[in-house]
Every structure is written in structure tokens, then in C-alpha cells.
Amino acid sequence: MGDHDHIRSSRDPRTNVRVAILSGILFLSGTGALLFETLWLRLSGLAFGNSVWAAALILSSFMAGLAL
């Protein structure tokens, strides 16, 4: 009834597939980024010691990378 039925019926099924693929790619990219952040955090523990400053350095580097 109304405009909402027209919007649902006019959506192309290929659009749903594209959105699903894009969502999957973004999810895998985020998962990879978190895995690399964890790896860098562990490796920085070897170089700088496990301290708040080492964790802050890795977290700020990660956030700066996201900002680019």
C-alpha cells in the first residue's frame, strides 16, 4: 500500500547481491585489520615491552591508518 510497496517492488535483485558482496568484503577487511593490529601489538611488546604506552602507540597508529 502506498509508496513503500512501489519501492520494494522496484528494487533489482542484483542490487541485493551487490550489497551482500560489498558487506562481506568490508567485514573481511575489518577482520584483517583487527588481526594485524593484534599482531603489531604483540610484536611491539617484544620491542617496547608490554606497557600502556606501547598499546597506545599501536592503537593511535591503527586509528591514523583508518583516517587515511
What's the β-strand tally? 0
Broad shape: elongated
Summed up, the helix count is 3
Question: How many domains, in number, for the residues?
Answer: 1
Report the order of strands and helices: HHH
Which secondary-structure class do the elements indicate?
mainly alpha
Oligomer: single chain
Question: Main beta sheet, described?
Answer: none
- Which regions have little confidence, pLDDT < 50, spanning 5+ residues? none
Care to describe what's here?
The structure is a single chain. This protein has 68 residues and is an all-alpha fold. It has one domain (3-67). 88% of the residues lie in helices and 0% in strands. The chain has three helices and no strands. Helix 2 (13-48) packs antiparallel against helix 3. The longest helix is centred in the middle third of the chain and has 36 residues, at 13-48. The N and C termini lie far apart (45 Å). The model has no long low-confidence stretch (mean pLDDT 81).
